[in-house]
Amino acid sequence: MEDWAEEESEEPADAGGSELRSMTMGEAQHGQRLDRALADLVPELSRSYLQQLMALGCVTLQGRPATKASTKVKVGDQATLEMRPTLQSQAFRPEAMALDIVYEDEHLLIVNKPAGLVVHPAPGNWSGTLLNGLLARDTKALLVPRAGIVHRLDKDTSGLMVVARDRATMDALVALIAARKVQRQYVALAHGAWTGQKSVTVDAPIGRDPRNRLRMAVVDLALHVGKTARTDVRLLDGADQGCWVQCTLHTGRTHQIRVHMAMLRHPLVGDTLYGGAPLEGMQRQALHAFRLAFDHPVSGAPLEFFAPVPADMRDALALWGLSYNLA
Questions:
Q1: How do beta strands 287-295 and 216-218 pair?
Q2: SS3 for 48?
Q3: For every residue of 77-97, which 3-state class applies, written as one string?
Q4: For residue 186, how many C-alpha atoms fall within 13 Å in the half-sphere facing its CB?
Q5: How many other CB atoms are found less than 10 A from the CB of residue 92?
Q6: 187: closest CA among 254, 230, 249?
Q7: What Å distances lie between residue 322 and 60, 189, 314, CA to CA?
């Protein structure tokens, strides 16, 4: 399971669905800055967001537009606020989209996510996500946190994900993942001819790259914040240009396979963030979650699912003369 932490920002959306609220400054607000006084009276909105509304002319004080957050207020001052919905507040909305459902029962479903689809709304992608599609597909998803999403794939990684359809199943799946009882295997096309043993285990902790906050990196836990991470890597086929490998996750850190493969000096084709380059038509990281296996959290029945290698990866393999057979 990948980490969920992301920086969030609040931005005003279109005025549709806005609410006009009137208020009177009390003794507690007397002498305060306008933004702080409004934050007291409308605690569901942050000061930074209120400041943005002021800049847009959505706040009046004593009947006049108030655009300066530092304006001092007095007892009895009358203020009006046009509360426009934030992009975050509009993110959890149903959006009909075609989803490749591999399996479904009353408790869970398995989705084969295409490359390019964002899993969860976040800054820069407040709509058009897998979560939006799940909300449109199943009314039960509205009753489950994050629409039942219990783990995440990067936007440009394709492959299998399990989604819960009720809270009890979601909690059980989270527990299975934490106990490492969910088997997740990937295939990847990487730069560089493979040498040495055909199977290796990378056991190296991962944290935020101290030199580039947009990246993750292998870190020394004595010096930097991070988490243990383990990946088994097995060569499936090789060529002078690169290698076709199978990766098995034992932990689920952000960008884990991408970071560990770069550590092995085999960055993924198309993964420019970690030293790879677009080649053979691959414009995204050449990574695909092809196998997912676990015991059903309700019935206990063993489940195993496979997703075929996507066309862009098959084409790249063919250009290097590699076989995409997963056996």
A1: unpaired
A2: helix
A3: CEEEEEECCEHHHHHCCCCCC
A4: 28
A5: 18
A6: 249
A7: 67, 10, 9
For the segment 75-129, what is each residue's pLDDT rounded down to a tens digit? 999 999 987 766 666 678 899 999 999 999 999 999 999 999 999 987 778 889 9
pTM across the whole model: 0.77
Helix pair angle (34-41, 47-55), 10° resolution: 120
Q: How far apart are CA 11 and CA 6, in angstroms?
A: 16
Pairing, β 101-104 against β 206-208? unpaired
Cβ-Cβ contacts under 8 Å for 180 (sequence gap 6 or more): 250, 251
For residue 33, which of 50, 21, 17 has the smallest C-alpha distance?
A: 50
DSSP 8-state code for residue 12: B
Among all residues, which ones are annotated catalytic? Answer: 154
| Stronger pLDDT, 143 or 107, i.e. the higher one | 107
Supply 259's token pair: 């970071």
Per-residue confidence (pLDDT) for residue 15, from 0 to 100 = 38
How many angstroms separate the CA atoms of 192 and 197, rounded? 15
Tokens 């490359």 locate to 115
| pLDDT per residue as tens digits for the range 46-79 | 788 888 888 888 999 999 999 999 999 999 999 9
Averaged pLDDT, 251-270 = 97
Asked if 8 and 88 touch (Cβ cutoff 8 Å), the reply is yes
Phi-psi region of 180 (alpha: psi -120 to 50; beta: other; left: phi over 0): left
Task: For residue 251, give the nearest of 280, 229, 276, 235 by alpha carbon.
Answer: 229
- Does residue 136 or residue 90 have the better pLDDT? 136
List Cβ neighbours of 171 (8 Å cut-off, separation of 6 or more). Answer: none
